[in-house]
């Protein structure tokens, strides 16, 4: 491929069109496992990096140069939406997002406000810089309403989501008010990304697997559907990704989107049979990357072997790249998938 040509393999796979090879990109491919990123983190905190367009664009480009992936993803943080809505969020190293005042009442929900384009102009500028540099598609993204709500209610990352579920069960009216506000903000946020130049969108529902199927249908699915339906007019591929969704997959995938992103707990061939009209993305366990190339090659071969027809398949991990991943292993993985 000549350097001046645009590689649209990823976009064609999203649309179930034929491709010359299987496209590859990695969730969290821009970030902490790369020495170049760590050098920047020695100088700046995460939120400064995400809100400084030149730095955010550089971090987004680092894995593109190093790995040879088929799509770039915008370097940002899922908490940028709540921050734009007026929430005071700290990103604490080795912990994650922390709030001094979690959402726990109507008053705290009412303080959340719809934001304007000017509040995320830094993000639009980052996208514009990247579109001027990239010869592959750029993926924009947002956290999904449930995942954002769980951070807002818990006040910090959780393993049980107890506060979130209690709020949902005990105050369902307030829960729906919160989800409605977050949904509207996410729709605006993602439209702005496409307007600035993003060529695909992914909605990350990182913690939705904590819910039962019935709770997912009642408390979450209507809002996810609303988001994807509202994004139809963008004309870009829409990816729905969630972790631990095997128990709710039929409902999780029952939305208007082009691609379903899967974690490592699910069999790709089975999902392909269930959803032949959607592209699928996944789903190597990120932990395998810490086990050396032999294990990585074996697991990758098993994934590729499971799909006889790889039309509409995008190779990815089942979640984000771990911070101790070896960039060289990822580079070999990209080459291996491309070659096979």
Widest sheet, order of strands: 1-4-5-6-7-8-9
Helix content bin: 40-55%
How much is the average pLDDT?
96
Q: Which structural class do you get from the secondary structure elements?
A: alpha/beta
Uncertain residue segments: none
Give helix and strand order, one letter per element, not per position: HHHHEHEEHHEHHHEHHEHEHEHEH
Could you give the distance between the termini?
Answer: 18 Å
- The CATH topology label is TIM Barrel
So what's the oligomer here?
Answer: single chain
Tell the overall outline: globular
> What's the Cα radius of gyration?
19 Å
Please tally the β strands and state the result: 9
Specify the CATH architecture: Alpha-Beta Barrel
CATH C-level category: Alpha Beta
**How many domains make up the 3D coordinates?**
1
Q: Give the strand content.
A: 5-15%
Number of helices: 16
| Sheet with most strands | 7 strands, parallel
Structure overview:
There is one protein chain. The protein is an alpha/beta fold and 340 residues long. It has one domain: TIM Barrel (Alpha-Beta Barrel), CATH 3.20.20. The protein is 46% helix and 12% strand. Strands 1-4-5-6-7-8-9 form a 7-stranded parallel sheet. The chain has a two-stranded antiparallel sheet with strand order 2-3. β2 and β3 form a beta hairpin. The longest helix is centred in the middle third of the chain and has 25 residues.
């Amino acid at each position: 491929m000549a350097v001046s040509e645009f590689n649209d393999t990823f976009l064609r796979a999203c649309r179930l069109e034929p491709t010359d090879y299987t496209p590859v990109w990695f969730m969290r491919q821009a970030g902490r496992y790369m020495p170049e990123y760590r050098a920047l983190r020695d100088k700046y905190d995460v939120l400064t990096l995400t809100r400084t367009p030149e730095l955010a664009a550089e971090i987004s480009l680092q894995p593109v140069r190093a790995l040879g992936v088929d799509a770039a993803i915008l370097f940002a943080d899922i908490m940028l939406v709540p921050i734009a809505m007026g929430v005071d969020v700290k990103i604490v190293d080795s912990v994650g997002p922390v709030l001094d005042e979690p959402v726990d009442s109507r008053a705290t929900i009412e303080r959340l406000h719809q934001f304007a384009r000017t509040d995320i102009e830094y993000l639009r500028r980052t996208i514009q810089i990247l579109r001027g540099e990239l010869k592959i598609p750029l993926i924009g993204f947002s956290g999904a309403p449930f995942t954002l709500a769980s951070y807002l209610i818990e006040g910090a990352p959780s393993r049980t989501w107890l506060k979130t579920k209690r709020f949902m069960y005990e105050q369902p009216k307030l829960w729906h008010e919160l989800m409605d506000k977050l949904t509207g903000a996410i729709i605006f946020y993602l439209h702005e990304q496409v307007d600035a130049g993003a060529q695909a969108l992914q909605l990350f529902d990182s913690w939705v697997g904590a819910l039962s199927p019935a709770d997912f249908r009642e408390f979450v699915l209507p809002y996810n559907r609303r988001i994807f339906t509202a994004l139809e007019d963008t004309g870009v591929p829409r990816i729905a990704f969630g972790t631990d969704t095997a128990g709710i997959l039929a409902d999780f995938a029952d939305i208007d989107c082009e691609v379903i992103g899967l974690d490592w707990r699910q069999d790709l061939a089975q999902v392909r049979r269930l959803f032949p009209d959607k592209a699928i993305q996944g789903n190597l366990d990120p932990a395998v990357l810490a086990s050396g190339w032999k294990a990585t090659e074996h697991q990758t071969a098993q994934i590729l072997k499971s799909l006889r027809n790889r039309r509409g398949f995008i190779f990815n991990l089942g979640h984000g790249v771990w911070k101790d991943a070896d960039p060289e292993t990822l580079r070999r993985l990209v080459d291996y998938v491309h070659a096979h």
